[in-house]
Amino acid sequence: MEGTDPVNKKLAAALSGGAVLALALTGCSGSSDDGKNDALNTWAKQVCDGVQPQAKKIQAASAAIQKQTSDNTPTKTVQETDAQAFQDMSDAYKAIGAAVNKAGAPEVDGGQKKQQDAVKELNDLGASYASLKEQVDKLDTKDQAKFADGLKDIATQLDKLSKTGNDALKNLEEGDVGKAMATQPSCKSAPTGASSATASPANG
Predict the structure, then answer these.
(1) Reported pTM
(2) pLDDT number for residue 197
């Protein structure tokens, strides 16, 4: 039976994949907007300003779990750190959803549906991480083999979560919306390092 370290490396790899979802909104690329659409630029600024601190929170949560893979961390510490990280990510996704919701629909074709779909997606992600937090809380830290098995199951769920669920966000940022967001300082300065952590999932 493998110990918690190899399993937690899988968890960290899967978690960093999930962190990229939030950064999708902050890593917008596209040519600079020509300034004609002031309303869209105002919308983009509001969303970017709301997303940036939450993206940093998600990246910090991912880093906290990754830090545990470097030494033989006690199961209780792993449980507490992972649970807090999932809670932080849940709160952050819900806050990003609230920021997108508060900004209203961008003034583009189908803007209202794009906005509503993205808000639902973000809230669903928040609920998913809250569920993972509850699962971590219930793990048996006194039995390392059971704990490792529990973490492995959570890592599998995380991996699935990281590969799905950002279609609405991508749809929201298409075209003029993405161009407007690309000009915002708070989107440009948002952390993007989490994507590098997903280069190769750890093999247990």
Answers:
(1) 0.81
(2) 35
